[in-house]
Amino acid sequence: MEQKTSPDYKNWVPKGTVASLTASAFLSFAMTGLFAAIWIKKGSPLFLVLFLILAVCTLALIAISAYMRIWHNAFSYTGKRKLAARIIDGTAEFVTVKEGGTCLDVGCGSGALAIAVAKRNPTVKVVGLDRWGLDYASFSKQLCEDNSRAEGVDNTEFVKGDAVKLPFEDESFDAVTSNYVYHNIPSKDRQALLLESLRVLKKGGTFVIHDLFTKRKYGDMNEFIEKLKSLGYESAELIDTANGKFMTKKEADFLFLKGSAILIGKK
């Protein structure tokens, strides 16, 4: 297989999803026109009802496909905004691992954050973990490995696993990182998911976790931070990234990224 010359980190909003929605909108528009023509010709109340229903569906599909295209363009690594790249690079800047240490990136996806951390910490072994499910079918272990080679990085390793129950012993890593992962996992207690990731962190190790830390998704994060401190963690704090750091507040609200913040600290 020919080796890639440049990385392909894909897009958090797949191009295929945008294309499918756009095609559905066009099909719905065509069907709306067809039923409108039949209604005008025959004057049938049934076709009037079908026309109205399809008209509403068409407008909804047009709105959704347009919005998803905006999302796709915003998160594109090759587009003008490059929001995903800015988030990845900005998160990686917070990660410093001791020489010869190890780092676990939970939910590594296409390998972007794991590779960014590995580039900034060349003496550190960075392990990227993901379950690579059907919901993100374009992401895979092979893609991560290809991207790592394309970036000239040789201190990464990628393994299949589940963030809900990590396949590692307690205190296995010197650092734990993650980006926009836990809010996607169906759970009534996402604070428990955080504790599972922190379980594998060594004493003295650091954690840098970027996610949508809204109260609806996570509960009271201030209480969680106090809980960490009561458990003996040296430090823990939330750094807002949706108020100019990675994105503007207006942008965060429009893209439904409200609550974006980095949970950072030391065990």
What does this structure look like?
This protein has 267 residues and is an alpha/beta fold. The chain folds into two domains: 15-75; 96-266, 3-Layer(aba) Sandwich (Rossmann fold). It has nine helices and seven strands, in the order αααβαβαββαβααβαβ. A seven-stranded mixed beta sheet has the order 3-2-1-4-5-7-6, sandwiched between helices. α5 links the parallel β2 (125-130) and β3 (156-160). α1 runs antiparallel to α2 (45-75) and α3 (83-92) crosses α4.
Describe this structure in a few short sentences:
With 267 residues, the chain is of the alpha/beta class.
Sequence stretches where pLDDT stays below 50 over 5 or more residues: none
Element order, helices and strands?
Answer: HHHEHEHEEHEHHEHE
CATH topology of the largest domain: Rossmann fold
Provide the spatial order of strands within the biggest beta sheet: 3-2-1-4-5-7-6
User: Nearest-angstrom radius of gyration?
Assistant: 22 Å
Overall number of strands: 7
